[in-house]
Each structure stands twice: as C-alpha cells, then as structure tokens.
Specification:
This protein has 302 residues and is an alpha+beta fold. The chain is 39% helix and 19% strand. The protein has 12 helices and 10 strands. It has a 6-stranded antiparallel sheet. A two-stranded antiparallel sheet has the order 1-6. It has a two-stranded antiparallel sheet with strand order 3-9. The longest helix is centred in the middle third of the chain and has 18 residues. The N and C termini lie close together (5 Å).
Length: 302
C-alpha cells in the first residue's frame, strides 16, 4: 500500500482518537474505501483512489470537529506558489493594460504562463507582488476559492515581517516549516491579512488528505493539543518536528492592510520520505490493528 495512503488513514485514526472526527464517519469512510481498493493499482492510482473517496464525496462536510470553531482576531499568513496566483497576475494584466509599463506587462506575462513565455525572474516576482498590492483593492482579489478552504497560520507565530534572510533560504525555510511537501522548485509569495472576528476551523484528516505531511495529532510533533492544528516541520531527512499553528478558513478578500511579499524560490526538494513520516506518526502502533478497529483487514494490502 502506498505510504501516502497509509499516512492519510493513520490521520483518520488519530482524528477519531482525539475527538475531531466522528467514529461513525470514519467507519463509513473505511468500509467504502477498502471495498473499492485494489492491490493491482500502482502507487499513484492508489493515492488518486483515496482522494476520490475523500474529496469526491461529502466527507469534509460530514466531519464533526468537536473542538469547535476558533475566532481569529489577528493578522494571518498564507503562502502561495506563483502557480497558485496566476489568476491575480492575469487579471491585472488584462484590466490595467493601459496603465502598465512594458516591463510590467512583460513580467506579468511571464508570471501568467511561464511555460510558454519564459521563466519568470526574481525581478518579475518582486514586481508581481508590488502590482498585487497596488491593484488588489481595485480588483476585489480573494485568497481561496468559494467552495474550497484556505489554509492559514498566525503572523505572530511566523513573525514573517521581521525576517530579512537571503531570498531563497527564506522561501525554503517557510516551505519546510509549513510542511508543503508538494513544492519543490517554485517561487513563493506570502500574504499577510489582518482580520477581525473571523471564524477558522481546526483542520482534520479529511481536509489534509492530499498533503502527505499533514498531522492530525500534534502530540506526534512533540507539543500539546490545542484549538489550532499544527504543521509538520520537515526538519531534515526523516526528522519531523513542530511547525506553525494552522487553521482552515473560508476565502478571504485582500482588503485594507493586506500585503503580498515575494519570498524567493525554494532551492531543493522537500526533505524526508513518505515511509519515514509514516513510521513517525504510526508511533509504534500496528497499522493492521488500527484498520481492524473499523472492521477492515489491511494485511493483504501491506
């Protein structure tokens, strides 16, 4: 069985054990998933099958978060790869073409479609962040999609505004602290958004199934449980620690006081292996014993 699948399933176990996922919801999920699982699938197909069972159904909506919602009354931070905000650059280029210099237009074009128009430079990225700050209020730019969740952390925890490190080192460190395993060599942008009386929710295994460094029970990371979740710090090869507090939120507008900053380009692949992380959060337990709790025999899939 693919280690990404095992990691997601362990997080579901831990969600039940910590009271963040209803046992009946987990039971239904396990029965449906294992009845549809086949050893004949290659690892990527196994992982795709898992995600189809999580995101292709109403599972995230049925999750019971017994820790409840958390009111956010501070400046939050979310990090995006350049590929995740191409719509921002495209909207600026289209709607403000008469105001842009040729250099600005060229930068936005490379940020919009790096595969066709050439790889964006650091100057392009810096200018892209400046243009987002300049035009965000005119375009009503929003972080996150209407029917999806936005992952956020606390600005006071990251203290991002105080960091003045070399470009690419900062981007790589933020990637590793946030457990963004799927980001290898990408340009990163950070958004800081001051918000008041906004409700966030502690994420569960069903929200984080597509991230194989998601951790449902932060005690595996060496800290006590709280109303916020915790990112996994990909500290070193197969060494995992406590990263930043995290919540999920509805989409957020880039309103007054919001800022975009270019962090740099991550310079190496994210450290650690899926097998190493699986063994870390399995924490000495037997995987098949956990599956058996929900009437599923995973032994033949191991």
């Amino acid at each position: 069985m693919d280690y990404r699948v095992r990691i997601a399933l362990i997080n579901v176990f831990d969600g039940v054990a910590t009271g963040q996922i209803a046992e009946s919801t987990a039971q239904e999920f396990f029965v449906d998933f294992f009845s549809d699982f086949s050893f004949d699938l290659d690892p990527d197909q196994q992982f795709t099958k898992l995600l189809a069972h999580v995101f292709g159904r109403t599972m995230p909506c049925k999750v019971e978060n017994l820790l409840g919602k958390t009111e956010i009354d501070e400046t939050i931070v979310t990090v995006k790869a350049s590929s995740g905000i191409q719509d921002f650059f495209r909207d600026i280029e289209i709607k403000f073409s008469d105001e842009l210099t040729q250099d600005d237009a060229d930068s936005l074009t490379r940020l919009n479609d790096p595969g066709f128009f050439g790889v964006p430079t650091r100057t392009d990225c810096e200018r892209g962040a400046e243009l987002i700050n300049l035009y965000a209020s005119h375009l009503s730019l929003t972080l996150g999609l209407p029917h999806n969740v936005l992952w956020v952390t606390s600005e006071s925890a990251t203290n991002i505004s105080a960091h003045d490190e070399e470009w690419d080192h900062l981007a790589t460190r933020m990637r590793d602290m946030l457990g963004l395993i799927d980001i290898a060599r990408e340009h990163l942008f950070v958004f800081t958004v001051p918000i008041r009386s906004h409700l966030g929710i502690r994420p569960t295994a069903f929200n984080g199934a597509d991230n194989s460094r998601f951790c449902q029970d932060e005690e595996h990371l060496g800290i006590a449980r709280s109303d916020w979740g915790r990112t996994t710090w990909m500290e070193d090869h197969n060494k995992f620690g406590s990263g930043y507090p995290e919540l999920i939120s509805a989409a957020l507008p880039l309103g007054e006081g919001a800022q975009c900053r270019y962090l740099g380009q991550t310079q190496n692949c994210a450290p650690g292996s899926n097998q190493g992380y699986y063994e870390h959060i399995l924490a000495g337990r037997e995987f098949n014993d956990l599956c058996s709790r929900f009437g599923c025999n995973a032994e033949s899939f191991l």
